[in-house]
Design a protein that fits this description.
This protein has helices at about 1-10, 70-80, 95, 120-125, 145-160, 175-180, 190-205, 220-225, 225-245, 250-255, 270-290, 320-335, 355-370, 385-405, 410-415, 415-435, 465-475, 480-495, 500-510, 515-525; strands at about 60-65, 85-90, 135-140, 170, 210, 215, 260-265, 305, 340. It has about 525 residues and is α/β, with parallel strands linked by helices.
């Protein structure tokens, strides 16, 4: 009787995405179409985008930074570059993300809290002071105001004598996932999609080394989706963006090589590795077979990974170092091009320099000491990993077909389909933790009331008043007629469907328009998005 019950219990074991897990796997568990003998660097890229992968070049090591003032952020950037970081990754405060200047009444109490406060070209100049923009790659996690932040970055480069042709980096610029999971939107979806299409077109012509969009599954995963939903919803959004660009008259091979992606890596180790392998395969087939891209670079899924902030705990924060290490190893084994490792204290506050250094050293140890980078796709051929890779691909395709039948990602978002799927999965996960079916070390098991909390980072309380003063000085010193003309030109362009708005935004920035003023000028034309509330 006991043996029978034990067998039944084993049969119920599943991954976080609900994929059944047997006691052991063999070749019999693989699909009839085997990918075991695939080569890295060849379609559909299950084993990696490049033939030699990390043997030739390691992934880009990024640490998400940006907090408080532009001065503090510049200091942190200099610290990270001095300690071997190879790319900058910039976080912005909520007012900047939602198109409000630091002196806006709705910005009170939020200035510099979740990232750096950037309201003007002066702030951006300070942020990148003494950092040559032709020598670094900069990733900016910004969405509804991405067009303005890229314009600010371009104008800072101009002040350094650097052409936009030489700028390298990424703007997240993924507004659809904001309606799904994060909510830092401003305008309704259609004008927001127009801005994204304009940025992609502008970068193709004027900033050719820039990735104008990083289509993000990360935030949907952090909101509660599982690995299958993360891929399915991300690729559904990607299809919507690609179609937007095609509708503008662009050819798919003109812009597809500069599309990038951003995924989460959480604690289900082998499922996460398989997720990244499946993602490359799914995307390559979408680009080749659905959009008929001819350039092999258009088939490449280039993706950045960030370890899971949601998985970090406020209790026993040093446990988070182990969590981040496991997630980082899964991301590397999955073949990411760029990686951010979270810091141990981020469940409590913005990270200290000590915590950031540990997070960066985590990547450096993995790269230099573990041997993971010595061969391509080290876990490829594992019966379990290949099984998971194929199952994830199958389940993602089911979701994509369902979303297509609805009319695409935009319709699915408007119906609340993505949101409800994520909500349901998040609820089930939380219930498992609350009932201790899922163990979180230090939270619902192995608690330790004697653990000592680390020293936390503290934000300067004077940032808000200093920012208000800087904005007053900027508005008093700028050429008022040039500023007003540039804002008026932007609004006129926004009223016309055939104008690319990016040149007008860049010109407004040159004439010292603030981020909030640019956003407000577009609010007057497009209005703001009011989500449908259902009970």
């Amino acid at each position: 009787m006991c043996a029978t019950m034990a067998k039944q219990e084993v049969k119920k074991i599943k991954t976080d995405s609900g994929i059944p897990v047997k006691r052991s796997f063999s070749s019999k568990d693989l699909t009839s179409i085997s990918h075991d003998d695939e080569e890295a660097g060849k379609f559909p890229y299950t084993r990696g985008l490049y033939p030699d992968m990390y043997r030739e070049r390691l992934w880009t090591m990024r640490q998400y930074s940006g907090f408080g003032s532009a001065e503090e952020t510049n200091k942190r950037f200099q610290f990270l570059l001095d300690h071997g970081q190879t790319g900058l990754s910039l976080a912005f405060d909520l007012p900047t993300q939602t198109g409000r200047d630091s002196d806006n009444e709705y910005s009170q109490g939020e200035v510099g809290r979740t990232g750096v406060a950037i309201s003007s070209i002066d702030n951006m100049m300070t942020c990148f002071q003494n950092i040559p923009l032709d020598k670094v790659s900069t990733s900016m996690t910004i969405n509804s105001t991405a067009s303005t932040l890229l314009s600010l970055y371009i104008v800072v480069a101009e002040s350094q004598g650097i052409s936009s042709n030489n700028l390298r980096g990424t703007t997240q610029n993924d507004i659809l996932k904001e309606y799904i999971s994060r909510n830092t939107y401003i305008y309704p979806p259609k004008p927001s999609l127009r801005l994204i299409g304009d940025m992609i077109e502008y970068c193709f012509k004027e900033v050719p080394q820039w990735y104008p969009i990083s289509i993000s599954g990360y935030h949907m995963r952090e909101a509660g989706s599982n690995a299958i939903q993360e891929l399915a919803f991300t690729f559904a959004n990607a299809i919507e963006y690609i179609q937007t660009c095609l509708n503008k008259g662009l050819k798919v091979d003109d812009f597809a090589p500069r599309l990038s992606f951003f995924f989460c890596c959480t604690m289900e180790f082998f499922e996460e590795i398989a997720k990244f392998r499946a993602a490359r395969r799914i995307y390559a087939n979408i680009m080749k077979n659905r959009f008929h891209a001819k350039n092999a670079k258009s088939w490449h899924l280039r993706f950045h990974v960030q370890t899971s902030g949601e998985s970090l705990t406020a209790q026993q924060v040093d446990n988070n170092i182990i969590r981040v290490t496991s997630q980082a190893m899964a991301a590397v084994l999955g073949g990411c091009q760029s990686l951010h490792t979270n810091s141990r204290d981020e469940a409590l506050a913005l990270p200290t320099e000590e915590s950031v250094k540990i997070a960066l050293r985590t990547q450096q140890v993995i790269a230099a000491e573990t041997g993971i980078a010595k061969t391509v796709d080290p876990v490829g051929g594992s019966h379990y990993v290949e099984y998971l890779t194929s199952r994830i691909e199958e389940e993602v395709q089911k979701y994509l077909k369902k979303i297509d039948r609805m009319g695409g990602a935009l319709v699915a978002i408007e119906r609340g389909f993505f949101q409800e799927e994520i909500r349901r999965n998040a609820y089930n996960m939380k219930k498992e933790i609350d009932t201790k079916k899922r163990t979180i070390v230090g939270v619902n098991k192995y608690q330790d009331s004697s653990s000592i909390e680390p020293k936390l980072n503290v934000i300067d309380t004077e940032i808000e008043s200093k920012q208000r003063s800087k904005l007053r000085n900027l508005r008093d010193s700028r050429d008022k007629s040039k500023f007003e003309h540039s804002i008026s030109s932007l609004q006129k362009a926004a009223e016309q469907h055939d104008k690319n708005l990016m040149p007008f935004i860049v010109e407004a920035v040159r004439n010292r328009a603030t981020l909030g003023e640019i956003a407000n000028s577009l609010r007057e034309i497009y209005g703001i998005f009011e989500p449908r509330v259902t009970f």
